[in-house]
Write a structure and sequence with these properties.
Layout (H helix, E strand, L loop, with lengths): L6 H12 L71 E3 L5 E6 L16 E6 L8 E6 L2 E2 L2 E2 L13 E5 L5 E13 L3 H9 L6 E13 L3 E12 L2
Parallel strand pairs: 2-3, 4-9
Antiparallel strand pairs: 1-2, 1-7, 3-4, 5-6, 7-8, 8-10, 9-10
Length: 231
């Protein structure tokens, strides 16, 4: 931050500048150089005395005669700041598997990206403390020969618990109420039901599995585990 001198300090500098004895016979009166004088910056940057240049506060002087009020246009109010979005942390699955969560958004093609690492899972949808809608966590069942923690969703059972911790350290506990394998070709018709922003708040965990068919499909099914908040 640029420091500003007080009025008293500026007046003292002005007075001292006026008492400087020059080496030439030319005389400087009231800070205005006689013809032939070179324009040499003095301690105030040749501004407050002569009306040229920029003063110590970074503002041009001499533009407004004494007594003329300086008019300024008030700055527009800053735009409202959106509340910070809850940031992902980790999820602990029923059998103890742990995955790091990464925020992602659905692409223009309707695809929810999933991190390559088997130890990571995508977080998408509403925040954990929402009153309605789905918080979706999606992870690989396996990747490049490694089995991921979301593989255990194929052995999940109703009544088990899932715990999600955000980056602020707050824990959210959910109880599994529904476990279902859904064919991928049937999933689009049920997307609103399972993953939509309406209905009671729920945590929806998704991974792949079933028969491997290859191509763009990969595994034939998605394992979907739905859990509701524990009061």
């Amino acid at each position: 931050m640029k420091a500003l001198l007080t009025g008293v300090a500026v007046a003292a500098l002005l007075a001292s500048a006026a008492l400087v004895v020059t080496r030439s016979p030319d005389v400087v009166l009231a800070g205005l150089a006689t013809p032939g004088d070179a324009v040499v910056p003095h301690p105030l940057g040749d501004s407050a005395l002569s009306g040229r240049g920029v003063d110590l506060a970074g503002m041009p002087v001499g533009a407004n005669p004494p007594g003329t009020p300086v008019t300024t246009t008030p700055a527009p109010p800053p735009p409202p700041v959106a509340p910070p979005q809850q940031q992902p942390g980790t999820v602990r699955l029923p059998a103890g598997g742990l995955a790091t969560l990464v925020r992602e958004e659905v692409t223009a093609d309707g695809v929810l990206p999933v991190p390559e690492g088997v130890g990571e899972a995508t977080w998408w949808g509403v925040d954990l403390g929402a009153s309605e809608g789905a918080t979706v966590l999606a992870g690989h069942v396996n990747w490049k020969g490694m089995t991921g923690p979301f593989d255990e969703l194929w052995r999940a059972a109703v009544g088990q618990h899932v715990t999600v911790v955000d980056t602020a350290g707050k824990s959210f506990r959910f109880q599994v109420g529904q476990v279902e394998a859904v064919r991928k070709d049937a999933l689009p018709a049920r997307a609103v039901e399972l993953f939509g922003p309406r209905g009671g708040h729920r945590l929806v965990l998704v991974t792949c599995g079933g028969r491997w068919v290859g191509g763009d499909t990969g595994y034939e099914e998605n394992q979907v585990v739905i859990a509701t908040p524990v009061p």
